[in-house]
């Protein structure tokens, strides 16, 4: 029961501090602690052993546990930043902003990448339990799906570790601030734009295993409904992390070619999950002899370099002034300094380009 003994150890540290931490102050006996906190004798002994190992108390056989007058050194000024992909096209700038904010306030960062794999995320969280940091800023793994790693997040939280989620977190951890995009609003906004340009038959392609995908899809379908346009379920396709990996490795033509042959189905516009997939979709459309935007308009999210390096510049959503990495880092600092933080979801602005 590691969480219980760690919590008890922290309570006993506070008791020592309330009594001035003076050398020789005697803690309650094991039996008294067992009765007071309604926990097992083994848990009490584990907590006392931890305090003894760190030098906070001295245990005397047959006498009890006494304060040494020493307390552990100051907590580390390192903040763990856990992300899905270090090479993701939007993350380098986000990480730069995070590190710049932390550095100005005297904190360093430990950066981990999970490749959006549940097992890798579990390894990182276990490591953080063994090598404590003073804060955790995490982009959860496969955030649209239930996670078996909630238990480790809970253990870190029970230790009092401040946490902020980026883009999407762990559904079972209520009250943990999350900084992300207004994905529903962004999807809605893109359909409004396409409808204003005369498009009535709209398709889409979204990522299934991250929460942004279902949220953006929800906004798109809601706007199609509200505009009185036809909702054709068959026009919407989904891809996951493995499909993305194959697409980036040059093996994703089947995913996109299948979308063209079996999903497009007369649609004149496509809303893409992000610029990355929009870039590859436009190349597939042109290879198939379709013109962009004359035959098919393509719009997406992020306004990244992908939106400008392809054969057709991409109409994309962007954040006009707020920078998500800076905001997430500031929320972490707020938790560290005052114990309070709040979730924030950033509005989008649209930058029209040649694709639609």
Describe the structure using short key phrases:
356 residues; 14 strands; alpha/beta; 6-stranded parallel sheet
Summarize it.
With 356 residues, this protein is of the alpha/beta class. It contains 13 helices and 14 strands.
Distance between the termini: 57 Å
Give, in order, the helices and strands.
HHHEEEHEHEHEEHEHEHHEHEHEHEE
What overall form do the CA principal axes indicate? elongated
What is the structural class?
alpha/beta
Which residue ranges are poorly predicted, with pLDDT under 50 across at least 5 consecutive positions?
none
> What percent of residues adopt helix (DSSP H or I)?
40-55%
DSSP strand tally: 14
For the sheet with most strands, the description reads: 6 strands, parallel
Bin the strand percentage: 15-25%
Walk across the major sheet and give the strand order. Answer: 4-3-5-6-7-13
Q: What is the alpha-carbon Rg in Å?
A: 26 Å
Note the total helix count.
13
Mean pLDDT: 90
What would you say this structure looks like, in words?
- This protein is an alpha/beta fold and 356 residues long.
- Helix content is 43%, strand content 17%.
- The strands form 3 sheets. It has a 6-stranded parallel sheet, sandwiched between helices. A 6-stranded mixed sheet has the order 9-8-10-11-12-14, sandwiched between helices. The chain has a two-stranded antiparallel ribbon with strand order 1-2.
- α2 packs across α3, α5 packs parallel to α6 and α10 packs across α11.
- The chain is elongated and about 85 Å long.
- It starts with a helix and ends in a 5-residue tail after the last strand.
């Amino acid at each position: 029961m590691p969480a219980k003994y760690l919590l008890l150890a922290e309570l006993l540290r506070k008791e020592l501090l309330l009594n001035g931490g003076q050398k020789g102050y005697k803690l309650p006996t094991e039996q008294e602690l067992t009765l007071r906190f309604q926990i097992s004798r083994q848990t009490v002994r584990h907590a006392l052993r931890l305090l003894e190992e760190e030098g906070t108390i001295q245990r005397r056989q047959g006498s009890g546990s006494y304060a040494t007058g020493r307390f552990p050194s100051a907590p580390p000024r390192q903040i763990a930043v856990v992300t899905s992909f270090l090479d993701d096209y939007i993350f380098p700038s986000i990480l730069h902003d995070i590190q710049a904010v932390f550095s100005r306030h005297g904190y360093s960062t430990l950066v981990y990448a999970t490749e959006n794999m549940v097992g890798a995320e579990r390894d990182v969280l276990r490591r953080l339990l063994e090598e404590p940091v003073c804060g955790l800023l995490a982009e959860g793994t496969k955030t649209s799906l239930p996670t078996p790693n909630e238990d480790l997040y809970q253990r870190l939280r029970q230790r009092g570790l401040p946490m902020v989620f980026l883009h999407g977190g762990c559904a079972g951890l209520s009250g943990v601030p999350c900084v992300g995009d207004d994905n529903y609003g962004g999807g809605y906004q893109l359909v409004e734009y396409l409808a204003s340009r005369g498009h009535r038959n709209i398709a889409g392609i979204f990522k299934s295993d991250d929460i942004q995908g279902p949220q953006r899809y929800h906004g798109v379908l809601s706007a199609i409904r509200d505009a009185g346009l036809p909702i054709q379920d068959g026009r919407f396709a989904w891809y996951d992390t493995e499909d993305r990996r194959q697409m980036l490795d040059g093996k994703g033509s089947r995913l996109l070619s299948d979308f063209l042959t079996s999903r497009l189905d007369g649609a004149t516009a496509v809303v893409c999950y992000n610029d990355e997939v929009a870039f590859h979709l436009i190349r597939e459309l042109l290879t198939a002899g379709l013109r962009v935007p004359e035959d098919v308009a393509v719009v997406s999210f992020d306004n990244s370099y992908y939106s400008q390096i392809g054969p057709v510049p991409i109409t994309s959503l962007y954040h006009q002034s707020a920078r998500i990495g800076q905001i997430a880092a500031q929320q972490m600092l707020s938790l560290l300094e005052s114990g309070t933080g709040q979730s924030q979801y950033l509005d989008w602005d649209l930058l029209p380009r040649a694709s639609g």
